[in-house]
Amino acid sequence: MPLFWRIFLLNAVVLVAATALLLGPVTVSTPVLLTEAAILAVGLAAMLVANALLLRVSLAPLQRLTRAMTTADLLRPGRRPPVDGHGEVAELITAFNTMLDRLEDERATSSARALSAQEAERHRIARELHDEVGQTLTAVLLELERVARHAPTDLRTELHEVQETTRGSLDEIRRIARRLRPGVLDELGLTRALKALTAEFTGPTLAVQPRLDADLPPLARASELVVYRVAQEGLTNTARHAHAHRAELSLRTTATGVELRIRDDGRGIGGAPEGAGIHGMRERALLIGADLGVGPGPGGGTEVRLAVPVPDRNP
After folding, report:
1. Cα distance between residue 198 and residue 237, in whole Å
2. 194-205 as b/e, with b when 16 or more CB fall inside 10 Å?
3. Which 8-state DSSP code applies to residue 269?
């Protein structure tokens, strides 16, 4: 039955009951007696309560739909309000769920294109840094060494300082190029790439401990890249924002695939809103159907969890 007719009939029932009460044996005197006023007040209250209860039951699905609309998040897909109610209410909820399905599919497609373009741009910049800037600095470094050998003694110290500065810049460019294009992922595999990543972030103020299973199931190239990028972003956030002294990166086999966890002993995220880094991790996780969780760790600090499904391990 359409919503209009249901609300109309509910109010019609109340009005018919009120009319029956007025036409019944109850009369109203002039002036109104106390007992008559009490009877009318009780009858009016009963009709209002009945009308409110009936309307609440009929409109409850719309209230649940409103809550679902205000809390919908395309980065956390799969959440749908149940289709209940009748007539237009059920049709509205079904249309909303269909719209969410379409929006999630479109976002996944656009995110895949954007991230693919981003990876291609990373590779291009890394290649230019390595081939152009890196080679230029290498040539400058060799020329400085040649000049230093023929320079007067009082200038050699300054030239050696310039050499060290140039060598440090060259190492930094190579490090940036490696982070932009994880060639170690193709050359050595995911496990060794993650070990190299933890070694890169380990320093005087932060110790990163890797715990990687040896019998990991084979992952697709896209899944390995997502795991590596999420680990990279998680450790970057730890190093920059967590003020942590220790962190742990683990990759273990589960019943349905593999699970990446990054834990630290820092100050945690508290009530801070999610930034572009976490949004980027969520978008990458959606590309491979993985589940990403970011929150407080069991012993404090922050924990990043990425559950990656492997099709041949699903029950």
Report:
1. 13
2. bbebbeebbeee
3. -
Structure tokens at 71: 């809390």
pLDDT along the chain (315 residues), means of 10: 67 73 62 72 78 74 80 73 76 85 79 73 77 82 83 81 86 77 74 89 91 89 88 90 91 92 87 78 85 86 91 57
CA quadruple 52, 53, 59, 65: dihedral, nearest 10: 120
Tell me the H-state helices in 202-275.
221-237
Is the CA virtual torsion 162, 165, 171, 177 positive or negative? negative
Identity of the residue numbered 270: G
* Residues 18, 46: Cα–Cα separation, whole Å: 10
What tokens appear for 219 in the block? 């992952």
Contact by Cβ (8 Å): 302, 264: yes
Interatomic CA distance for residues 286 and 10, integer angstroms:
46
pLDDT number for residue 258: 93
Closest by Cα among 78, 55, 53 to 68: 78
User: In this structure, what are the phi and psi dihedrals at residue 279, rounded to the nearest 5 degrees?
Assistant: -60, -40
